[in-house]
Amino acid sequence: MDGRRDMAGIRRTGWTRTVRSAAAALTASALLTACVTAQNTGGESATPSGRSEANAQRAQTPVRPTGPLNVALLVPLSGPQADTGQTLVTAARTAVTDAGPQGIHLTVHDTHGTPEGARAAADAALAGKADLVLGPLFSVAAQAVKPVLARAGVPALSFSNNRAVAGEGLYLLGHLPGQQTAALLDYAAAQGHGRVVVASPDTSYARMVAQATREHLARGTRGQLVDSRLFPADLDYDSQVDLVKELASMDPTAVVIPTAGIGLVGLSALFEYYDATPPKVRLLGTDLWEWPGAFAEGSLQGGWYVSTSTPPAWTEQQTGARVSGSGPMGTADAMDADGHDSAETDDGAATGSDTGGNGEDAAPAATAPEPEPESEPEAIRLFAGPGKLERLAMDAVALAQGWAKARYQVGAGSDPITRFLTDPAGFRGYTGLFRLTASGLNERGLHVLEITEDGPDMLRPAPVSFGMRGAPTRLVGPDVVARLPWLAAEYEALEPLDPMTGPTASSTAPATAPPSASPGPVAAPAPVSGTDTGCRWRGRVQVCGPTS
């Protein structure tokens, strides 16, 4: 994916923290072997068998820790995404809580926002004896560094959400649209909303959601895909009206709209015009919908979406405490109009700051004072604390610190880092419950939320564990949680809940990768894949038939 459509929209915050990192380095003998192999091949990629042998040797060779874990952060610090990269650096350094012998030594490398720059950054990280790489940010950069790191046997935690680049030691931390779609469809079907249509401007993100919808409903009996329409972003208004009118006439009970901004508002208004409204019909979306404009749009009221963000109002209701909505770590950063696929700065994000008093306790004056302007209504707080992308960086650092400590435990020195990362019980970090899979994907505990004029309303809280797999590993220590009121409140709000069965088995992402088309609007049909998806193009609109 490119810089505009790969990750969560964020706004640059003012909070900073300096981190003093230890200078000691940890060098694994198997890593050196892998590097020598690459040098002996004149810089060419090692053969698959040679690469497997090198990685196997690295994984099986007991390693006695002698210092902090060397962790390299690969982000764009120059080019059009420099602000995003710097925000990630700030978030990552904020999450470093142990730079001692059992902690991590964090170094930062500039990818320059290009595949070539990403490869150079990966080479620099390996030259610095990196044991783990955090990043890159976008899938094109992740694809570029993947073979470089795989040859050296060094795993990477990428912030991308494009599952096409996962695997071979590269793990995705980004919020996957496929899992969100499955969780949302299951909840909707359980509430009687199983006749599904999909409508959206044609983007790679919309394609992933449309494909996930089709595959998920085809695997079981919980719902039916009635129709799916993806249309060019420049499709004229009259044609969009005709498209929505036709979909509404099919008597759906759920409408999946995988877009945000003006595209979302326009479609929701048309479906409302044709009486596709709650409670009979529910509009459904992913965390792309998590932006202030969605809550101000009347036609979206009653719509359902999924997210890892815990609504502050619900947290306060559960804990009876006031969650800080201002200050460095309490900013309620909202998504921009392009949702979590955009990395542009949102200068219009709502904050949870109060307007203060109005002087009611002052003594009455002989002359009526000038009336003070009315206080602005408090902005809707979609979540407390840092934004989604910042929390991903913090979780990546927390994972690194978790492994740095675990390898000092008895017998842990011979346990490969990949086994730690793919613990089926998962982890609980800054983004809530999640786990990584052997295929490089992730699974997350997701809230199901409803759009109201007052903000997101909790319909179903995220699970607190993955069922019988055991309790997840806590990545954030109690001392750190105590220093972050927003995180302490979120933990307290969720912990009293009875553990659910975890993200449903059906929400586990399949092993096969989705189309790797470039993100952003497209004006032409996608290239025909090797398998028949059942979708056809009618003029300029993609049409997918029912699943049954």
Q: What would your notes on this structure say?
A:
With 548 residues, the protein is of the alpha/beta class. The chain has a domain at 177-307 and 518-544: 3-Layer(aba) Sandwich (Rossmann fold), CATH 3.40.50. It has 15 helices and 18 strands. The strands form 3 sheets. It has a 9-stranded mixed beta sheet with strand order 15-14-10-9-8-6-7-18-17, with helices on both faces. Strands 2-1-3-4-5 form a 5-stranded parallel beta sheet. α4 runs parallel beside α5. The longest helix is centred in the last third of the chain and has 19 residues, at 388-406. The chain is globular and about 65 Å long. The relative contact order is 0.15. Residues 40-60, 307-321 have a biased composition (Polar residues). This is ABC transporter substrate-binding protein. Residues 1-38 form the signal peptide.
Radius of gyration (Å): 24 Å
Helix content: 25-40%
- Low-confidence parts: 1-52, 324-375, 498-534, 536-543
* End-to-end C-alpha gap: 32 Å
Give the CATH level 1 class of the domain at 177-307 and 518-544: Alpha Beta
Q: Give the helix tally.
A: 15
Question: Numbering strands along the chain, what is their spatial order in the largest sheet?
Answer: 15-14-10-9-8-6-7-18-17
CATH H-level homologous superfamily name of the domain at 177-307 and 518-544:
Response regulator
Q: Globular, elongated, flat, extended or rod-shaped: what is the shape?
A: globular
Average pLDDT reading: 76
Care to count the β-strands? 18
